[in-house]
Structures
1.
Amino acid sequence: MERYANLFISFSLLFLFLNYSLFVCKSMASSLQLNHDQINIMANLSKSLFPNSYHNWNTSDPNPCLWDRVTCSAGTSTVVTGLSLSNLSIPTAANVGDFFSILCRLDTLQNLDFSQNYIAMIPDSFFSNCTGLSGLKSLDLSSNELTGPVRNFSSFASLETLDLSYNSLQGTVETQLSSLSKLKSLNLGSNFLIGTIPTFIVDGRRVAVFEELVLSHNQFTGTIPSEIFEYENLTMLDLRGNSLSGTIPEEIEKLSNLKTLTLCTNQLTGKVPATLSNITTLFHFAADGNNLTGNIPSITKFFGFLDLSYNNLSGEIPSDLLASPNLEYVDLSGNRLGGAIPTNLSTRLHRLRLSGNLLSGVIPTSIGKLSKLAHLKLDHNNLYSEIPSQLGNCSNLELLDLSSNALYGELPKEIGNLQKLEVLALQTNNLSGEIPVEMHELQSLYRLNLSSNSFTGEILPTISNFQQLAFIALQHNKFYGSIPYSVNGLESLNELYLGSNYFNGSIPSSLGDLRYLEILDLSCNNFSGNVPDSLSFMNRLIELVLSYNNLSGHLDLSRFLPSVNVVTIGNKDLIVLKGSTESNSPENGVFVTNDSSKRKILVALAVVSSFVAGFSVSFFMSSLTWKFLIRKQAADVQDEDNLSDLNIRNNLQMVQRLRRFHERYYLGQLTTAT
Ligand SMILES: *[C@@H]1O[C@H](CO)[C@@H](O)[C@H](O)[C@H]1NC(C)=O
Ligand SMILES: *[C@@H]1O[C@H](CO)[C@@H](O)[C@H](O)[C@H]1NC(C)=O
Ligand SMILES: *[C@@H]1O[C@H](CO)[C@@H](O)[C@H](O)[C@H]1NC(C)=O
Ligand SMILES: *[C@@H]1O[C@H](CO)[C@@H](O)[C@H](O)[C@H]1NC(C)=O
Ligand SMILES: *[C@@H]1O[C@H](CO)[C@@H](O)[C@H](O)[C@H]1NC(C)=O
Ligand SMILES: *[C@@H]1O[C@H](CO)[C@@H](O)[C@H](O)[C@H]1NC(C)=O
Ligand SMILES: *[C@@H]1O[C@H](CO)[C@@H](O)[C@H](O)[C@H]1NC(C)=O
Ligand SMILES: *[C@@H]1O[C@H](CO)[C@@H](O)[C@H](O)[C@H]1NC(C)=O
Ligand SMILES: *[C@@H]1O[C@H](CO)[C@@H](O)[C@H](O)[C@H]1NC(C)=O
Ligand SMILES: *[C@@H]1O[C@H](CO)[C@@H](O)[C@H](O)[C@H]1NC(C)=O
Ligand SMILES: *[C@@H]1O[C@H](CO)[C@@H](O)[C@H](O)[C@H]1NC(C)=O
Ligand SMILES: *[C@@H]1O[C@H](CO)[C@@H](O)[C@H](O)[C@H]1NC(C)=O
């Protein structure tokens, strides 16, 4: 009994305590009461930004500390310490001048975020004569429309973080920021700044204590100045997307706290310094899109991310380069690397891209240990190898591109285990044998390119399992048999290439059910019988290639939309009707040469017309952007990956979508170009 009484008392006390806490919290909130002066300033600030009553900064409460976007702190007295006015569509026409001069009286402010608005002009007096904000620690004016030179920031002696990125600032950076002796993080990225990389050293004196320095996507020239290496506390140095020349200095190792070093898309030459391996904190190193030469030293001991793609690196890949246990991402595409692919591979690898080199030898079987691997690109090398069955153990693989090598042998049935596979590109090799039935398990497959090999066998009716498939390229192989009627189950199909095989039989009318089909190539086979009428009902179709078969009967071209390019040459019994005229196809059939450039122009023209007709935006993108994508690829991938680095969890989905988009169109151009 006594025990229950105790229990009851404990519960009551707990209840009282909870109630009391609630009370304390409430009274604390209402005690966040500003003095009269601060209330006035805040009211005037809100009025200066939004002279009209409606706006999306909720200032309806009489106590500004309860407005959203306002942070107050309660010390001896309550004061406003933070304003977060990001993304409020504040136009430059608002009384922004008034706003900034009133703001200078808010002398308790520590953090001001004014990013993502449309401000083009801030009065110079704000930067040089705003003594009230001498306690400001963080100022974010990024993603506005600021123009002109970087102003003299002499007002803000306490500033630790300054972000001016994504504006249109011009000119050089010299001493304008030299009053900011406490600056730890500076972002001037994505402007039009010129001159040499600022060193923030005035009269031999370091004027800031940098930890993060972002100068990316400007027009800085010259070399990487060695003065930068005096900022021993730098954790992030981002110089990508400028026009820097010269070498990556060996003294870079002085930056012994560096975590991220991005030098991509410049004109850097010389070797990759081996001293990078001495920076034990360095996790992310990217210098893709430069003109670096020589061998790659063993630098990855502490790395998680390495991108040296699109340089001019040569020699062999060091045997331990891909082995370091933290390594998640490696891209060495587009160099002149030779020798074999190292066999010692980090089991954390998520992406491995070695495309476009001179690699020879085999695909290592150790690849089967990479259970996290999502992207594997080994295309455009000289690999002379079978496809190891161990690949089937990489159960997270989404993209597998082994095209344009000298691979031989049969496709291992274990490929069927790759349930997440979306892109399978094996074209232009010497692979043979039948496609294993296990392949039909690949429910996520989006692109399948097996063209230009020696594959054989028939297309099974179960091909209709591939509900996601948008692209099938089987041309230039030894496939035979007929196209199964169930082909109409490929609901998402955009492009189907079956040319130059030994297919026969009639063309199934069910092909006409493929509502999204844009390109159908049946050329150079042994198809016979009539061309089914249903093909003329496909209103997305832009190219129908029937040439060099044994087709017969009448084909009335006037039934097709004008945007469709129908190629019929080489069917001696096919009578082609063009409107009212009638002809045998060999002489008058619409003929497209095998010249791939002409072909592309034709396709592009057809695409433009179908786009104008409002049909296919996505295909338009794929055809017209491919030229830009091929060279921009390194930079694009880089940006996406940095995105994921900043906010891995939150951005993962978006990044994957972007990446998927990128891969599709990038790979799309590769496969249609070959
Ligand atoms: C706020 O504006 C009013 C009138 O516009 C003015 O009288 C007052 O001095 C201003 N107060 C502050 C603190 O700026
Ligand atoms: C604005 O704030 C008030 C008080 O804090 C609140 O009651 C109201 O719902 C808010 N309005 C909007 C649109 O968020
Ligand atoms: C900015 O605001 C708009 C609507 O006001 C919203 O759609 C958009 O997502 C916001 N952007 C960011 C980056 O928060
Ligand atoms: C600086 O601002 C004060 C008032 O805020 C003003 O009196 C003074 O003239 C200004 N000085 C300059 C150089 O603009
Ligand atoms: C910036 O302002 C400070 C103090 O007013 C002055 O000493 C310095 O020369 C100015 N720098 C530039 C580049 O105008
Ligand atoms: C680096 O940080 C340490 C500790 O905070 C500090 O003592 C040192 O002065 C800093 N170095 C530089 C170059 O700012
Ligand atoms: C790393 O640092 C050590 C000690 O300073 C030095 O002996 C070694 O040569 C450095 N390694 C490289 C690759 O620079
Ligand atoms: C790379 O540098 C070499 C000389 O080292 C030069 O011949 C070549 O044109 C440069 N290539 C590019 C793309 O800048
Ligand atoms: C690659 O480097 C070699 C020298 O090692 C140079 O001759 C060649 O021009 C460079 N190629 C490119 C594309 O820059
Ligand atoms: C593979 O690399 C790791 C990490 O560098 C190393 O510990 C291991 O001994 C290497 N294994 C072989 C077989 O070389
Ligand atoms: C692949 O997985 C099988 C079991 O599914 C296992 O027996 C084999 O050792 C694995 N191979 C590698 C290289 O990990
Ligand atoms: C392709 O493989 C066949 C045997 O399957 C062989 O005869 C032929 O030489 C190979 N072709 C090339 C280019 O390696």
2.
Amino acid sequence: MTGANIYGLKGRLISLALVALVLIITFQWTWKKKPFARTYLPAQEWFNKPSAGLLDEAPNNPMGTANLTKGLLPEAPDNPLRTAKHTQGVEKSPSSINDVETREHLDNDSTVPIDFIQAESPQTQYDQNISRKEVCSYAKGRWIADSRRPLYSGFGCKLWLSTMWACRVTQRPDFSFEGFRWQPQNCDMPEFDRFAFLRKMQDKTIAFIGDSLGRQQFQSLMCMASGGKPSPEVKNVGYEYGLIKRRGAPRPDGWAYRFPKTDTTILYYWSSTLCDLQPLNISDPLSNVAMHLDRPPDFMKRFLHQFDVLILNTGHHWNPGKLNANRWVLYVDGKPNEDEKLAQMEIAKNFTVFSVVKWLNSQLPSHPRLRAFFRTISPRHFFNGDWNTGGSCDNDVPLSHGSEVVQEGSKDLIIEGALKGTKIKMLDITAISELRDEAHISRYSTRGILNASDCLHWCLPGLPDTWNDLLVALI
Ligand SMILES: *[C@@H]1O[C@H](CO)[C@@H](O)[C@H](O)[C@H]1NC(C)=O
Ligand SMILES: *[C@@H]1O[C@H](CO)[C@@H](O)[C@H](O)[C@H]1NC(C)=O
Ligand SMILES: *[C@@H]1O[C@H](CO)[C@@H](O)[C@H](O)[C@H]1NC(C)=O
Ligand SMILES: *[C@@H]1O[C@H](CO)[C@@H](O)[C@H](O)[C@H]1NC(C)=O
Ligand SMILES: *[C@@H]1O[C@H](CO)[C@@H](O)[C@H](O)[C@H]1NC(C)=O
Ligand SMILES: *[C@@H]1O[C@H](CO)[C@@H](O)[C@H](O)[C@H]1NC(C)=O
């Protein structure tokens, strides 16, 4: 062995080691830049990702660039997003969902509109990109007649629809208000598909917390998700959330139902002001109740970690009449409020909306799966008086005051202001709903307070279905 040979061998070893080192470093660097395991997840798994419909809002989402999205889709020839096959596969063994209906539904709907991106045809799908979604404002657009509406029957959805809101079972003779859908200006509105919706919401919990208008939206979503058909397999799981009817109470504090095949839970908790309410004397049923303006309802704090989608609303209970009737006493910072300004209802409401938004926003980092929404105020349409002075909303001609919303920004300045700079999204239904004065219960209220019209609540099926269309598009 010569020295040269030894050095040659050593040299080769060193070279090999260097090459290996370079390879390792390159690999690690590539891995970090482009983690294959995440980027090339089967399309099926992306499908189930909660963030898949929110590309613009998930900075760490590897699909969050147009290039990667484009790269991913063509490589998955059996991409379930683009074929109806997938739907069939998932819904193949329904114990409750009628096969015939499922098939019919597929034949008419080869591109299952799962969310905004998938609502496009395969061809235009590739051309989708994020900027398109960013300019899309669901609150601007117009109402258009749609013979595929309503999405469920006001007679059929007996399990979840309160009879007081099911206008089909009242004396109301005209139902043209049922036949409209909202067409946003710069974006496509995915046609609601209850199978796709439930699949997307697999193992997820959607919670509405708010007043009776929130309850209307909850009932609407239950009817939409079930198709308004008798669905005894949907389980009442109210007990899991303590939502049971207590002795002496006229009704439970809320309701919760679970769709068994997808384990999707939809619930509603009654909290008309989004304040924590504490009786001042628990042993006295007629006790005054502390209404803590700066504390969110206990229920919301307790179950927040179980929610995937939360929709808050408040508005119409902020008046002295409601407060007095409920014996609610304003509290701030754990003490009775002494600030006269804050005692004014609009100011108190604004204070609470800001408080609850601030609290909820502070919870989002520790609840990464939660998507939080605040629904803007639902407009009232009492003409020639108020609810208790003979006010009415007798127009039954849809869109007689116009069908379009063109304004930028929300008409609900309080909620828009409170959400600014937070991660809580606005479900802006105010201007849209203002155009629909004919869609209230009107004078056909079955629980009417002596000849009074209900120009606050809406007929179901009806307008709140559109609020849910918007919600589903935003999830
Ligand atoms: C996408 O690819 C194009 C070229 O194909 C490139 O110019 C652009 O910067 C890329 N965009 C992103 C977000 O990576
Ligand atoms: C599907 O389309 C056919 C004809 O185009 C129609 O008769 C049927 O009612 C549609 N089904 C659904 C569920 O829309
Ligand atoms: C995204 O869409 C906009 C508007 O449709 C278009 O101008 C832009 O070039 C697109 N960007 C990419 C990367 O495709
Ligand atoms: C609470 O209510 C009970 C029953 O009305 C009454 O006996 C009791 O004195 C009350 N307690 C206080 C501190 O007011
Ligand atoms: C609502 O409260 C916020 C925060 O306290 C305040 O900045 C804003 O001016 C208030 N708006 C109204 C209309 O009272
Ligand atoms: C109910 O209200 C209508 C119009 O507001 C009025 O014409 C009618 O007389 C009222 N009926 C009763 C019983 O008060």
